[in-house]
Structure formats: C-alpha cells, structure tokens
Automatic annotation (TrEMBL):
UniProt-listed Gene3D superfamilies: Class II Histocompatibility Antigen, M Beta Chain, Chain B, domain 1, Immunoglobulins
Keyword Magnesium: no
Localization per record: Membrane
Name of the protein in its database record: Ig-like domain-containing protein
Lineage, opening ranks: Eukaryota, Metazoa, Chordata, Craniata, Vertebrata
Family designation: Belongs to the MHC class II family.
InterPro entries: Ig-like_dom (IPR007110), Ig-like_dom_sf (IPR036179), Ig-like_fold (IPR013783), Ig/MHC_CS (IPR003006), Ig_C1-set (IPR003597), MHC/Immunoglobulin (IPR050160), MHC_I/II-like_Ag-recog (IPR011162), MHC_II_a/b_N (IPR014745)
Single Gene Ontology BP annotation: antigen processing and presentation of peptide or polysaccharide antigen via MHC class II
Length: 236
C-alpha cells in the first residue's frame, strides 16, 4: 500500500457556533514545515486572527469597525502548537524515510482592481494566486519594469479543500494613463516566475453624462418653444 506524507502537516479543528443571528463556523488552522509555521483563526472564510512568528506576536485582522474579541494567550498557544507539529513531522520522517516531496505550481494567477478605474483616483490592484503547494508563494510588484515596495501587502496562505493553498497580494496605486503594472509570482514548483500584467489605458474622463444632460436640455428648450408656438397659433 502506497502512502504519502506531506512536508506540511496541518492540524484542523472546526466548531459550529450559535448566535442570535444564526449559525456561523469558526475554524482554527495550525501548521508547520521545515522553515515556516502558521496558526490562523477563520470565521466563515474570513481570517480574523493569525500569528506572525517573525515578529513574535498575534495579529488581529478584523476591520476597525468590527467588535474585537480578546485573543489573550492565543499566541502562546500557537507557539505550543508549533512544537507539537514539528515533533509529529519528525516522527513521520522517521517512519517513512526518503518520501517524495509534493510540489504543485500555482494553477491560477489573476490580476484585477478592486474599483472601476478612474485616472488620478486611488485604487488597489489585486494579485490572486491559488492552487499551489507547499506554501507560501513570493509575490513582487513592478511599475513600468521597476520594483515597487511601498503600498504592497500579502495575506497568509489559506488552505483549499484539495490541500493546496491560496494567497492574495495587494498594491495601492493611483492610475495614470500609460503605466504598466506587473505581479510576479515565484514558487518552489516553478522553473521560472509567473507574471501577470495590468496596463492603465490612456483614457480621458468620461463625457457621457455631461453630453446626455446637454442634449436633454436642448430637447427641453425646443419642446417649450414648440408649445408656445402652437398655443399662439391656436388663439389666432
């Protein structure tokens, strides 16, 4: 019987909670690899808290307007989970020596904006990468072939149902006609980076509404003039 052991071990737990508004699902995901670790709380597919082991702290990722529960002691729990995860990883390697490493390149890379593009109005570019294993991917941004760092961010890897991962990188930018942006994705399963390009069109401000109003005003004036003419003619 053939068996596969992943380099990344995941410990998953799911709890169905009841509130006054109905059911919601809370998932806790803890995982480790040779060089990285992850501990995430997910509420209905939205990350509400995750660990930053490099900065040695937990990160509350809820928006400012939301109710923020207490995550006291959660980071210490995440550290303990990493110790257990790495012990399990070591035992798995001992039990199955020389097992092949699983490498899957991203199955999809998409680049798009969060808002309709208007020249000179701030917007956000999204680079959505999915279907890769193991995590993470490395995402960099270029503007007109020059690397951009300011205004960039990237989410923690999220597990898909098939065991692969998804990550999303963002770039805040102000559209200017002629600018070309590139999202460059690197992964251990790729022989060369994947690049997706977004070009800002040299579009002038849309004049449609102004023209429409102008035509409407002209038609209205002509209608009034015709009405006055028919009224005077009828009195003669």
């Amino acid at each position: 019987m053939k068996m596969k052991v992943w380099v990344l071990l995941l410990v998953l737990s799911s709890v169905i909670c009841v509130s006054a508004d109905g059911l919601y699902e809370m998932n806790s995901v803890s995982g480790c690899s040779d060089t990285d670790g992850e501990d995430v709380l997910i509420l209905d597919d939205e990350v509400v808290w995750y660990t930053d082991f490099n900065k040695q702290k937990g990160v509350d990722s809820l928006p400012a307007f939301a109710d923020h529960p207490s995550f006291e002691g959660k980071y210490e729990e995440a550290v303990a989970n990493q110790l257990i995860c790495r012990q399990n990883l070591k035992m798995a390697r001992t039990a199955m020596k020389d097992f092949p490493k699983r490498h899957e390149a991203p199955s999809s890379v998409a680049i798009y904006t969060t808002l309709n593009v208007e020249i000179g109005v701030q917007n956000t570019l999204i680079c959505h990468v999915t279907g890769f294993y193991p995590a993470p991917v490395n995402v960099t941004w270029n503007k007109n072939t020059k690397k951009v760092v300011e205004g960039t961010s990237i989410t923690v890897p999220l597990s898909n149902k098939d065991g692969t991962f998804t990550q999303t990188s963002k770039l805040d930018f102000v559209p200017k006609g002629g600018d070309v942006y590139a999202c460059i994705v690197e992964h251990v399963a790729l022989t060369q980076p994947l690049t997706k390009v977004y070009a800002v069109d040299n579009a002038e401000p849309i004049l449609g509404p102004a023209i429409f109003c102008g035509v409407g005003l002209t038609v209205g004036v002509l209608g009034v003039a015709a009405g006055i003419y028919l009224f005077i003619r009828g009195r003669k």
